[in-house]
Automatic annotation (TrEMBL):
Pfam families for this protein: Thioredoxin_6, TXNDC16_2nd, TXNDC16_3rd, TXNDC16_N
Basic and acidic residues composition bias: residue spans: 756-771
TXNDC16 second thioredoxin-like domain: residues covered: 132-251
Annotated region (Disordered), positions in chain: 738-771
Protein name: Thioredoxin domain containing 16
Residues in TXNDC16 third thioredoxin-like domain copies: 252-342
Ranges annotated as spanning the membrane: none
Length: 801
């Protein structure tokens, strides 16, 4: 903020420059002799003197840019002048060639700053540099996250922060920030950075452009609580910053009891719409909380008001709960029925089109059954049931062509009902060739199998997405496990160099170390490697010099070396007397993250750990401080009985429905909950008024363990089963993400050769998942004693998750 010693509104500033004489006079630049210039200097004011020699035209382009900067600088009280030197001039600013390429900024007769002229490359750079120099004590330039945190902590309860990132000093965006700081610097603390790493550290996702944030620190009284941040989503320009700050200054929420058409706020004046949340006396407090949540989400995008229906003289349709008014003059208000706050947000942001209250005019369109809508998988299948796939891109196989094709080449076969250059993509329509599909052990659709010449076919049980299927294909190119033949090759394998093209698809490489005589252990590891084929890279080393590796990595034979390529580290795990399933479980657990982002695809994997979930819900990337706090608790073994994770609502919108089930309405984020899915169904919420710190979390968890916290809701114990076994899509998702040892068949399963023996028919085995992802519930869990009884009287059995 601007110091009392320098009030720029009361001080005239001049900008002094040294130049080489440019004969074409610039009318808007004041031209003075050195004596005349110095005689005009006044205390507290400044001037611009460009001392010019008479025989060099090298600065013509620069003078043109300077001329354009004269008027804007004068608007800020900064004068610009040019001083013509003569050869006899004795001024220190005349006659020194090295000084002729510099620009000098003075206040009175005191030199404030000098700039090389090449840094003032255009009018934007000139204005930005001059204002930056004048406001140097008011605009804090920082380079690290620690700097930002220190400023934020020092201003909590005192003032708000205007934080900006620009790509470089002197850009148009930098000029816009400095012009805003000139106007608002006495009200807000401006903070500036050009460090892209700092921008990434505060959770910004799109980092290629300049950013402007408003930190709401003045209302924060708890020093451990983070200031709420609002991002300006418009391009970083002076007018946009002005509009944005004006909306930050406006009341967050206003209660009105008049005709929405007659209401006027600063938002309308700035060209932003108004959103009225319709309320009534009986639900006023709940409506106000909802309106405040919406107001925070729409801050800087729209004005939010709470409209009291009971006090209105104007009639509002009975079922309307939202009124929308555009900023255009004369635009009619719209009465809407929106039962989800996200629909309100989308309405403003223009992401969706919400119909006004009216009857469905399209009689040909039938809505899917409500039971189908409750299941996201079934609803997606229903919605895309008529989508035509580009089947012409694959080779269609029949009973006559199947064996000859898959025996002659490596093939991926899609069995259905209704890219790699060396892999032939084919398909079989089981509706036409049912006998063939039965012989190939195809009992549900769609099914994908890989056929490699001379080997048993391998079933793919993963998600039918391009990324997952490509991973399966690429990882199947190498044998599992790979036979490593030298210490040097083993080191290349562990470093990721040996199969560096596959590292993006397998972030962990597993190397089994054995002495040559450990026959049984090697056989078990080989079976485990086959089990994990297509899911992770595995290798085996059992040469005479294996002790070189075991000694280097502190491993007792037999051992597993787990190379985590993202972290760049190798860890050893002994597994003496471990059988195939134990080895698979060890590797499977190694693939799990310590603090993962939960998605629809990976949720079943973490549910299998059979622990309550500690979930941090966030509307975007999470604050690094939160991650640090949780990882510290993990390291100190405080979360061993929980599965800590986080869920980004932007990446996984289904999380909004989960939160609404827990809280009835979408609560402010970020938010931490503990969900005991496996026994009791209790849901506990970390107090929203507390900062997310190690100490606060640990104290809260101890209260949970002692039974001193009450659940906010208890999930009903119900099962959602697929209508038919072939529609059990969730079990397919389970198989895609996990290699649980209790399964009788792995995800990438070798099958008996059906081409050689059609009489043998086997069913592909996979775990049957009875509950959908949305229920977040697995039964028969009895390991934790945390949530013994809960508050049995506090039940919402009518809720579904």
């Amino acid at each position: 903020m601007m110091s009392s010693s320098f009030n720029i509104y009361r001080v005239g500033i001049s900008f002094v420059m040294m130049c080489i004489f440019y004969k074409s006079a610039v009318d808007s630049l004041s031209e003075l002799s050195p004596q005349k210039y110095f005689s005009t200097l006044q205390p507290g004011k400044a001037s611009l003197a460009y001392f010019c020699q008479a025989d060099s035209p090298r600065t013509s382009i620069f003078l043109e840019e300077l001329n354009e900067a004269v008027k804007p600088l004068q608007d800020f009280g900064i004068s610009v002048a040019k001083v013509n030197c003569v050869k006899e001039e004795t001024s220190r600013y005349c006659g020194k060639e090295k000084d002729l390429m510099k620009v000098y900024l003075f206040r009175g007769n005191i030199l404030l700053r000098e700039f090389p002229t090449d840094t003032l490359f255009d009018v934007n750079a000139i204005i930005a540099h001059v204002l930056f120099a004048l406001l140097f004590n008011e605009v804090k330039y920082i380079t690290t996250l620690e700097d930002l945190q220190n400023i934020e902590n020092s201003l909590k309860g005192k003032a708000n922060i205007a934080f900006s990132y620009v790509r470089a000093i002197g850009t148009p965006e930098h000029r816009a920030v400095m012009e805003a700081a000139f106007v608002y610097g006495t009200t807000y603390q401006f903070v500036l950075t050009t460090e892209i790493a700092l921008l990434e550290s505060i959770g910004t996702e799109a980092i290629e452009n300049a950013h402007f944030y408003f930190f709401h620190c003045k209302q924060v009284l708890d020093l451990t609580q983070q200031c709420r941040r609002t991002l300006m989503e418009q391009p970083l320009a002076t007018l946009n910053i002005h509009r944005f700050i004006k909306t930050m200054e406006a009341p967050l929420l206003t209660e009105v009891a008049e005709d929405p058409q007659q209401v006027s706020t600063v938002h309308l004046q700035l060209g932003l719409p108004l959103v009225f949340i319709v309320s009534q006396q009986a639900t006023h407090e709940a409506d106000r909380r909802t309106a405040e949540w919406v107001a925070w989400r729409l801050l800087g995008k729209a004005g939010v008001l709470l409209l009291l229906r009971d006090s209105l003289e104007v009639d509002i349709p009975q079922h309307a709960n939202v009124v929308f008014r555009r900023a255009e003059e004369g635009a009619p208000v719209e009465f809407l029925v929106l039962h989800d706050t996200e629909l309100i947000i989308s309405r403003v942001e223009g992401n969706t089109h919400i119909e006004e209250m009216q009857e469905d005019e399209d009689e040909d369109v039938q809505s899917p059954d409500m039971d189908i809508q409750d299941d996201e998988v079934a609803e997606t299948v229903y919605r895309h049931r008529k989508t035509q796939l580009p089947l012409e891109l694959t080779v269609e196989l029949t009973e006559e062509t199947f064996n000859a094709t898959v025996v002659a080449s490596d093939s991926i076969v899609l069995f259905y009902a209704g890219c790699t250059s060396t892999m032939l993509l084919t398909r079989v329509n089981c509706a036409d060739w049912s006998d063939l599909c039965t012989k190939q052990n195809v009992t549900e659709f769609p099914v994908v199998k890989m056929y490699k010449e001379g080997k048993h076919p391998v079933s793919y049980a993963g998600m039918l997405g391009a990324e997952d299927l490509l991973k399966f294909i690429l990882l199947n190119r190498i044998s599992c496990p790979v036979n490593i033949t030298s210490v040097q090759e083993a080191e290349e394998y562990l470093s990721g160099e040996l199969y560096k093209d596959l590292i993006p698809y397998s972030s962990v490489s597993v190397l089994g170390l054995f002495s040559p005589n450990m026959t049984t252990a090697k056989e078990d590891f080989t079976k485990a490697g086959n089990y994990l084929r297509g899911c992770v890279i595995t290798g085996i080393y059992s040469e005479e010099d294996v002790l070189i590796l075991s000694n280097k990595y502190g491993a007792t034979l037999p051992a597993l070396l787990l190379a985590r390529h993202k972290e760049g580290k190798v860890e050893s795990i002994p597994f003496a007397n471990s059988r195939v399933q134990d080895i698979v479980q060890i590797v499977t657990n190694a693939l799990l993250e310590t603090f993962p982002e939960i998605t629809v695809e990976n949720l079943p994997v973490y549910l299998r750990l059979q622990k309550p979930l500690l979930i941090l819900f966030s509307d975007g990337s999470i604050n690094p401080q939160y991650t640090k706090a949780i990882l510290t608790l993990v390291k100190e073994k405080h979360l061993d009985s929980l599965t800590p994770c986080w869920l980004n609502l932007k990446n996984t919108p289904a999380g909004r429905g989960v939160l609404q089930t827990y809280f009835n309405a979408l609560p402010p984020l970020p938010l931490i909950v503990v969900v005991n899915l496996h026994s009791g169904g209790q849901v506990f919420a970390f107090p929203s008024e507390q900062a997310i710190t190690e100490q606060n979390l640990l104290l809260w968890l101890k209260k949970l363990e002692a039974g001193l916290e009450s659940p906010i809701t208890i999930l009903p114990a119900q099962e959602w089963k697929p209508p038919l076994p072939a529609y059990d899509f969730l079990s397919m998702m389970d198989a895609a993400a996990s290699q649980h040892p209790t399964r009788k068949e792995p995800e990438c399963t070798k099958e008996t050769n059906m081409q050689k023996n059609d009489k043998k028919q086997h069913e592909d085995k996979s775990t049957i998942r009875k509950e959908p992802v949305e229920t977040l519930r697995i039964k028969h869990w009895n390991r934790s004693n945390w949530f013994k009884e809960g508050d049995k009287s506090f039940r919402h059995d009518n809720k579904e998750l």
